[in-house]
Amino acid sequence: xxxxxxxxxxxxxxxxxxxxxxVSPDAAPVKRLAAKAKEDGMLIDASCGRKTKSVIxxxxxxxxxxxxxxxxxxxxxxxxENTDEGF
Length: 87
What we know:
Radius of gyration: 13 Å
Shape: globular
Strand order of the largest sheet: 3-5-6-4
Structural class: alpha+beta
Strand content: 25-35%
Order of helices and strands: EEEHEEEH
Distance between the termini: 11 Å
Number of helices: 2
């Protein structure tokens, strides 16, 4: 089984196998989650200085910020999955 890497924008990729959730950053609980992750040293800002449009939670409790909206990341994950099936 091959590891699925998903582009989350601006040259950044993550392992699709480790994603637990991809959520919008607008809700207060998500903002608290990101703040707590930053405090604990578990926040990865992959937005490259742009506005955060999605927050990705991993199974290792890392929280990743991305400038791509959740729908676009899911779309890229599906494309990557379809590409893997061709091999």
